[in-house]
UniProtKB/TrEMBL annotation:
Listed Gene3D superfamilies: P-loop containing nucleotide triphosphate hydrolases
Database matches in InterPro entries: Fe2_transport_prot_B_C, FeoB_GTPase, G_FEOB_dom, Gate_dom, GTP-bd, P-loop_NTPase, Small_GTP-bd
Family matches, as NCBIfam families: small_GTP
Feature: compositional bias, Polar residues: 11-20
Native organism: Stieleria bergensis
PANTHER family the record matches: FE(2+) TRANSPORTER FEOB, FERROUS IRON TRANSPORT PROTEIN B
Keyword tags: Membrane, Transmembrane, Transmembrane helix
Record's protein name: Ferrous iron transport protein B
Region (Disordered): 1-20
Occurrences of domain FeoB-type G (ranges): 20-199
Sequence intervals crossing the membrane: 256-277, 306-325, 332-351, 363-387, 441-467, 474-496, 533-553, 650-667, 687-713
Gene Ontology molecular function, alphabetical: ferrous iron transmembrane transporter activity; GTP binding
Matches recorded under PROSITE patterns: G_FEOB
Length: 714
């Protein structure tokens, strides 16, 4: 997968040409700033129940109105609302805290180089005293400030009542109780923001005395005392919060039981994926079967009709363009446009039979092969988001951190590692939360070893091939593949610590977030986002590669004279004669010791651009076209039926597992490489990553195949 889960964001207007006013959302990590930002702006930026999810500033244009029951009398103001990374103190300890501190001071060069017009300090109603500490520092900046007490729903559920008026008196600024999740209090917050930044009034800063003024001891301790005292005056607990959860936490964070719990949870999720996803997968197969038949019937027997050529040519040209645009780090180039035009012209010149084959065997089969995995990906993210939101994942982090530090990975790498299970790219981006360069580099280098969602289609295919009749075994194989990625990442980190980047990783200081009822809406939205990203990928990169592969597998055409008489052998002979056949046979010796034949090699070669391409490549190489679109089990059946020249089957347990190991470990994602280069600032590390991972994959697959073959599984 190649996309960063960002919502479109605009740069805030800067300096003199500033039109709308700027309002910052600040506060401790994990207090719900991004949730509030999304609720106010109607957006869907990533949120999760652990600190450090937002690492850069994000801006949205919103409108706030004055209070007036008559809508005609309401005045409004346009604002730039800015979501910032979490901040513990104005003396930043990490790069993302520095972003927030600089924005508050109006010193963030180029992006926020003017003082904000207002600041909304978000605090957590369930943890008021801790989250108010930073508020004391922000209030001392003497900017127009509003305090939003978020998670008010959770506090009420826990029996905590907050006296808003008292809190407002103590802080000397407006205080608004809100629930970003439920949408409560948002209108009042909007109105309060309006009152603070009225278009034609200059809001006067409110002078406040510092809570550390005259303090002779530790200023931090003074701030903590102040926050405790303010929270104490304004909070009232109706019932004592049940402490039952502590024994749960003791179990969930204990080294052995905690690890066992984590494994059990993940295994159950994988089992669900197989079980539930079956139904929607069948519907998708049926839909593609229908599309494929309809298109095949529509293609005329004469020269290609203009109305058919036009949509297909447009689609492919757009795919070429989008693919090139992405690889070029979202920059437009002349060659991408040129290629797009050339492709559409070429399509126009195709003879009718080839056009038919391109539409059905190239485009439809290529996309269908990948899109069937959409349900599995959606279900995975649905459950992961529920787990993240509930606060369980933070316990998982706690269990893993002991292990991680031993191998030289910083505790803070846990969040990037979680994201990398969706896609290495947001994972690598979120390593910005790691202060030490050494720790950050190690994390970036090992992240792509973790199983990202692009590997899922390959895992599913191998699972169906080897354990089609047993979901239990398939789930174990799945968990094994995830575990292998994790072990490889840990092993590599350890190796790096002992060699290229020596040193000890910094310990993790993270508060365990309280358990929260996960939001179904958030889980559904994340699922939708992930699904869209996956489809976008299928519609661009994969479509493009499918078409290129189709062309290479179709041309040059075998001369009539050389065609075998037996019809079943004709397709095989044509493929061997084509460009793909020749390339495959040339590189066959390289992968032979791993148990792969030249057709699998073609799949491997094409999937260096993006892993999930393997599945569609095999559909195309095995000439399944129309049939594969109707029935993806057919791919598995066809693969299972393949034989080597000596008559023995190609896909034995040894070959299947060797292929799986190769895909777990190899660096097969161009966009990730581009991001590694950008984040480490040098091509060197991207090359190191590629060579190391691919070398490791080769050796591990070789060992897998040879060992299993020796044991008689080949
Ligand atoms: N119950 C409840 N949960 C909330 C509310 N607002 C946010 N959450 C949850 O709190 C967690 C943290 O939310 P985020 O919006 O990611 O917090 P953040 O402050 O942006 O965190 P960082 O970006 O890590 O600094 C998520 O699991 C949210 O679903 C709320 O009003 N009520
Ligand atoms: Mg956030």
């Amino acid at each position: 997968m190649t996309t960063v889960d960002d919502v479109p964001a605009t740069e805030p207007s800067t300096g003199n040409e500033q039109q709308s006013k700027t309002v910052l959302l600040v506060g401790n990590p994990n207090v719900g700033k991004t949730s509030l930002f999304n609720a106010l702006a109607g957006l869907r930026a990533k949120t999760a129940n652990y600190p450090g999810v937002t690492v850069d500033l994000r801006v949205a244009a919103i409108q706030v109105r004055s209070v007036d029951s008559d809508p005609h009398c309401q005045a409004s103001a346009d604002l730039d609302l800015v979501d910032l990374p979490g901040l513990y103190s104005m003396q930043p300890a990490s790069p993302e805290e520095e972003v927030a501190a600089k924005c508050l001071r109006g010193e963030f060069q180029g992006r926020m180089d003017h003082s904000p017009d207002a600041v909304v300090v978000v605090v957590d109603a369930t943890n008021l005293s801790r989250t108010l500490v930073v508020a004391s520092e922000i209030l001392e900046l003497n900017l127009p400030t509003i305090v939003a007490v978020n998670l008010i729903d959770a506090a009420q559920a826990a029996g905590t009542e907050i006296n808003i008026q008292e809190l407002s008196n103590q802080l000397g600024c407006p205080v608004v109780p809100v629930s970003a999740r439920k949408g409560n209090g948002l209108d009042t917050l909007r109105e309060t923001i309006y009152d603070t930044v009225k278009p034609d009034e200059v809001a006067l800063p409110i002078a406040r005395a510092s809570c550390v003024a005259g303090c002779t001891g530790c200023p931090f301790a003074a701030r903590f005392d102040w926050a405790d005292q303010v929270a104490g005056c304004s909070t009232e607990s109706r019932k004592t919060v049940s402490r039952d959860l502590t024994w749960i936490d003791k179990t969930l964070t204990s080294p052995l039981l905690g690890l066992a719990a984590l494994l059990t949870v993940m295994l159950s999720v994988f089992f669900m994926i197989f079980w539930v996803a079956n139904y929607p997968m069948q519907w998708i197969e049926m839909a593609f079967g229908y599309i494929s038949e309809t298109v095949a019937a529509l293609i005329p027997s004469g020269p290609v009709a203009l109305w058919l050529w036009f949509p297909l040519a447009t689609l492919l040209s757009l795919a070429v363009f989008a693919g090139a645009y992405r690889l070029n780090e979202m920059k437009w180039t002349r060659w991408s446009t040129g290629t797009a035009v050339a492709v559409s012209l070429l399509i126009g010149m195709l003879p009718q039979a080839d056009f038919h084959s391109l539409a059905v065997d190239g485009v439809i089969a290529g996309i269908a092969g990948v899109v069937v995995f959409l349900p599995q990906i959606c279900i995975l993210f649905f459950f992961i988001t529920l787990l993240e939101d509930s606060g369980y994942m933070a316990r998982g982090a706690f269990v893993m951190e002991r292990l991680m530090r031993r191998v030289g990975l910083p505790g803070k790498a846990f969040v990037p590692m979680l994201s990398a299970h969706a896609c290495a790219i947001p994972g690598i981006m979120s390593t910005r939360t790691i202060e030490s360069w050494r720790d950050r580099l190690v994390t970036i280098l090992v992240l792509p070893l973790l199983t990202c969602s692009a590997r899922l289609p390959v895992y599913v295919m191998v699972a169906a091939l080897l354990f089609g009749d047993s979901p239990g075994k398939a789930a174990i194989m799945f968990a094994g593949a995830y575990l292998l990625g994790l072990i490889a990442a840990f092993g590599t980190a350890f190796l790096l610590k002992k060699t290229v980047v020596p040193g000890e990783a910094a310990p993790l200081v993270m508060e365990l977030p309280s358990y929260r009822l996960p939001s179904l809406r958030n889980a559904l939205l994340t699922m939708l986002d992930r699904g869209t990203i996956f489809l976008r990928q299928a519609g661009t990169t994969i479509l493009l590669i499918s078409v290129v592969l189709w062309a290479l597998a179709t041309y040059p055409k075998i001369p009539e004279a050389q065609l075998p008489v037996d019809e079943r052998q004709q397709a095989q002979a044509a493929l061997e004669y084509s460009a793909v056949g020749r390339i495959g046979q040339t590189i066959e010796p390289v992968f032979e010791p791993l148990g792969f034949d030249w057709k699998i090699d073609i799949g491997i070669m094409t999937s260096f651009a993006a892993r999930e391409v393997l599945v569609s490549s095999l559909s195309i190489v095995y000439g399944l076209g129309e049939d594969a679109a109707e029935d993806t089990d057919l791919l598995v059946e066809t693969l299972a039926r393949q034989t080597k020249p000596d008559g023995s089957p190609v896909f034995t347990t040894a070959t299947g597992l060797s292929l799986l190991v190769f895909f777990v470990l190899a660096m097969q994602c161009l966009p990730t490489q581009a991001v590694t280069k950008r984040e480490t600032g040098s091509l060197k590390w991207a090359i190191v990553q590629f060579c190391y991972m691919t070398g490791l994959a080769y050796v591990a697959a070789l060992m897998t195949y040879q060992t299993l073959a020796a044991l008689g599984f080949a």
